[in-house]
Write a structure and sequence with these properties.
- There is one protein chain.
- The chain is α/β, with parallel strands linked by helices.
- The chain is 30% helix and 22% strand.
- It is built from 17 helices and 28 strands.
- The strands form 8 sheets. The protein has a 5-stranded mixed β-sheet with strand order 13-14-15-16-17.
- Helix 2 crosses helix 3 and helix 13 crosses helix 16.
- The longest helix has 17 residues.
- The chain is globular.
- It starts with 8 loop residues before the first strand and ends with a helix.
Length: 628
C-alpha cells in the first residue's frame, strides 16, 4: 500500500505537542509583506523593529520611512517587477532596510555576502542580471567597476525622495528574492522565490509559533544564507523586535545563551551544531526563550531534560522557501534513532518516491520530494536544470503544480513523522552550507598543475565535517596547500575551501569506470600537501595542545605550524577548543586570541604566557596550594 502525502501542519499546543491537524490557505490571498510592515509602522511607529549589535534601535517608523525613500530611488533607476537588486551588506539593520526597499519598489532582492570572492560576486551579479547593487561604502567603489547603479548605503541621498510608499503593481507571483547556492555544473545557481512562497512561510510561522508584537527574535545568519529570510520577515510582519548579536557572540554557545537572557529573546533560530551545544548547557529555570528553532544540518542529539524552552527541528531546501517540514523534539523521546525532521508545514506536501517516482510503502526509504505553496519558481536562467529538478506533480489536481526533487533520502515513520537518512548524490552540507563537490573540483582543475581532482567530506557530525581534496598533478611540480587555497579564493567562498589537499597517483575507479570514493586513502603526513615541512610538537605544552587539536579535528597528526582554521577549524570548533584548553591548562583564552595565534606554536606560547602571569600574581599560599 502506498503511503499518503504527508501534508500535516505541525501546530504547537501549550505543552508543545504536535497536533495532527491540517489547515490550508491560499498563499495568493495573503497580504503583501511590505504592506504588513507598513501597517506596523502606522500602529506602533516608535516600537523597536531592529536592535543592532551596539544596542541602537531602528523603529518601525524609521524603517518604513527610509525603505520608502530608497524604493523611490530604485524606481527612478528603472527597478520594477521582476527586477533583481543585489544587497551586498553584512548582517545589520541596513541589510534588512535595503531588502525591504527593493520589495517596496516591486523588485526582488539578491542577498550577497560582501566577503564573497570578487570573481564569484561578479558572476552572480551578471547571471542574475542585477539592475542595481546596494552596498556598504567599503565596497561601493569596487563594485562600480563590475555593476551599474551602485548605491552606497551610507549615502543619505535617498533622503530627498518621498517618504510615502510607492504605488506599484503587486502580484504574489512576482519574485521576492533570489538566493544563490552551490552548483553541480561548476557554477553557483540562483533560486527564484516568489511573494506567494514567502507569504506562505510567514503565515505558517506566525501561527505555528504564536508570534506577536511582544516577541523578541534573533537574527544570527549571514545575509546570503536563506535562514536569514526566515529569521527576519515573519517577525517584522507581526511587529516583533529583531535583535542582532555581534559576530563573536553569535558563534559562542555560552555567550549566546547569556545574550539571550540579557535581551529577553523569546524565539531564536540557530544552526544545528550551535543548537546541539546550547542544549548541553545549563539554563536558568526561568527565562524568556519559548522556542529554539534549528535546522540546516542533521540533528544528532535530543535536548536534555528540564530545558525551559521547546526545541523544534526544521528541514527545507532553498528551492522550497527555507522550511518544508518542522517538528518538536521532545527529550522524552530519547532513543537510539536520530531526531526526526517532523511533518510538512502548511500547504506543503511531502512524498517519498522510488526511482520511478512512485510512492514507497511507509517505512521504506526513498527520495524526498516536495510539492505545494513552498515550491519556488526554479533556477534563474537555468531552464534545463529547472526541468530536471522541478517535475510535474502527479499527485495533485492542478496540472501546473510541480514537485521539487530534493536529492535527500528519507522514510516515513509509523507516527507520520519523517526520518532524514542522508543524500542520494555526493552533495555535502557543512555548517548549513550546501556544497556541490563538482563546483570545487572544477575550480581546482583550472589550476595549471592539477590534472584531476575529487572532493569529499571527512568527519561525522555536522560540526566535525571538513573538505578534503584528492588530486593528481600534470607534471613533477606540486603546488603547496597555501598556493592552492590562494588560487581557489579567487572563485570560492571560504566555506568551500578544502582543509586538506591529498596528492595521489591516480583517482581510484570501480570496475564500471566510475570514481570509487570509498577507495580514497586516509590523509597522512606523507601524502598531505603542506606549506612547509612537518614539525613535530616538542614542548609539553605543544604536545598536549597538539593532542587536543588532533582529537577535536579527527586528524592523525598536527604540525606545530599548522593553522587551526586551515585544518578545518571554525568559530564553533574554536569555542570547543577554548573550553578544552581551559580544562587542560587552567587558562582563559578568547576566540579573538585564537584568531591571532592560530598555530600550535603560537597558541602554546600564549598559553605559557598566561600560565606565567597567573603564577606571578599568586600569593605564597595560593602557590603552595597549587603545588600540593
Amino acid at each position: 500500500m502506498s503511503a499518503p502525502s504527508l501534508n500535516i501542519r505541525p501546530t504547537y499546543s501549550p505543552a508543545g505537542s504536535i497536533v495532527g491537524t491540517t489547515r490550508t490557505n491560499d498563499a495568493h490571498t495573503l497580504a503583501w509583506l511590505p504592506d504588513l510592515i507598513a501597517a506596523r509602522a502606522v500602529v506602533a511607529p516608535h516600537a523597536a523593529a531592529i536592535v543592532s549589535t551596539t544596542g541602537a534601535a531602528m523603529t518601525y517608523g524609521d524603517l518604513d520611512r527610509r525603505a520608502n525613500q530608497m524604493a523611490h530611488h530604485l524606481i527612478g533607476l528603472g527597478v520594477k517587477a521582476e527586477s533583481v537588486v543585489a544587497v551586498c551588506l553584512n548582517r545589520s539593520a541596513e541589510s534588512v532596510l535595503a531588502a525591504l526597499a527593493v520589495m517596496k519598489a516591486g523588485g526582488a532582492y539578491l542577498p550577497i555576502d560582501p566577503k564573497q570572492p570578487r570573481e564569484r560576486l561578479a558572476f552572480m551579479l551578471s547571471d542574475a542580471e542585477a539592475s542595481a547593487v546596494i552596498a556598504d561604502p567599503n565596497l561601493a567603489d569596487e563594485l562600480a567597476g563590475i555593476a551599474s547603479n551602485v548605491i552606497d548605503i551610507s549615502d543619505r541621498a535617498c533622503d530627498r525622495f518621498s517618504s510615502q510608499a510607492p504605488v506599484i503593481p503587486k502580484s504574489q507571483d512576482q519574485l521576492a528574492y533570489v538566493i544563490y547556492t552551490s552548483g553541480s555544473t561548476g557554477e553557483p545557481k540562483g533560486v527564484e522565490v516568489t511573494h506567494a512562497n514567502l507569504a506562505n512561510l510567514i503565515d505558517w510561522h506566525v501561527q505555528a509559533f504564536d508570534v506577536t508584537s511582544a516577541d523578541r527574535a534573533s537574527h544570527l545568519s549571514n545575509v546570503s544564507f536563506d535562514a536569514a529570510v526566515w529569521e527576519v520577515w515573519p517577525y517584522l510582519a507581526k511587529g516583533a523586535a529583531l535583535y542582532l548579536p555581534d559576530n563573536e557572540t553569535r558563534v559562542s554557545p555560552i555567550s549566546l545563551r547569556d545574550w539571550f537572557m540579557a535581551n529577553d529573546i523569546t524565539i531564536s533560530f540557530v544552526p544545528t551544531p550551535l543548537a546541539e551545544s546550547l542544549m548541553a548547557l545549563p539554563w536558568p529555570d526561568k527565562n524568556s526563550l519559548r522556542f529554539l528553532l534549528t535546522g540546516a544540518d542533521t540533528l544528532h542529539r535530543y535536548p536534555t531534560r528540564g530545558l525551559s524552552f521547546t526545541l523544534v527541528n526544521n528541514y527545507g531546501p532553498t528551492e522550497c522557501t527555507v522550511v518544508t517540514t518542522s517538528g518538536r523534539i521532545d527529550s522524552r523521546a530519547l532513543g537510539n534513532d536520530r531526531p526526526t525532521i517532523g511533518r510538512a508545514i502548511t500547504n506543503a506536501s511531502v512524498y517519498i518516491l522510488d526511482k520511478n517516482f512512485r510512492q514507497v510503502a511507509r517505512g521504506k526509504a526513498g527520495e524526498l520530494c516536495v510539492g505545494g505553496a513552498c515550491v519556488s519558481r526554479g533556477y534563474r536562467n537555468r531552464p534545463e536544470l529547472t526541468a530536471e529538478k522541478f517535475i510535474p506533480d502527479q499527485f495533485g489536481t492542478d496540472p501546473s503544480a510541480r514537485l521539487y526533487r530534493t536529492g535527500d533520502l528519507a522514510r516515513e515513520l509509523e507516527n507520520g513523522e519523517i526520518a532524514y537518512l542522508g543524500r542520494i548524490d555526493e552533495q555535502i552540507k557543512i555548517l548549513g552550507h550546501r556544497i556541490e563537490p563538482a563546483e570545487i573540483e572544477a575550480a581546482i582543475d583550472r589550476h595549471p598543475a592539477i590534472a584531476s581532482s575529487i572532493v569529499v567530506a571527512h568527519g561525522g557530525d555536522c560540526s566535525d565535517k571538513r573538505l578534503a581534496a584528492y588530486l593528481t598533478t600534470t607534471n613533477c611540480i606540486t603546488p603547496t596547500a597555501g598556493e592552492l587555497r590562494e588560487f581557489l579564493r579567487a572563485s570560492l567562498p571560504d566555506y568551500m575551501l578544502p582543509s586538506l589537499f591529498v596528492k595521489i597517483d591516480a583517482l581510484p575507479v570501480t570496475a564500471n569506470g566510475k570514481i570509487d570514493r570509498t577507495a580514497l586513502p586516509e590523509p597522512a603526513i606523507e601524502n598531505t600537501l603542506r606549506d612547509e615541512a612537518f614539525v613535530a610538537p616538542q614542548s609539553p605544552t605543544e604536545k598536549r595542545l597538539a593532542e587536543i587539536v588532533r582529537d577535536l579535528l579527527h586528524l592523525t597528526s598536527v604540525s606545530v605550524n599548522d593553522n587551526f582554521f586551515l585544518l578545518g577549524g571554525h568559530s564553533l570548533l574554536g569555542t570547543q577548543l577554548i573550553v578544552k584548553i581551559r580544562s587542560a591548562f587552567s587558562v582563559d583564552l578568547s576566540l579573538r586570541s585564537l584568531f591571532d595565534a592560530p598555530t600550535i606554536a603560537e597558541l602554546s606560547r600564549e598559553i605559557e604566557r598566561l600560565i606565567v602571569a597567573r603564577v606571578e600574581s599568586m600569593s605564597e599560599e595560593e602557590a603552595l596550594a597549587l603545588l600540593a
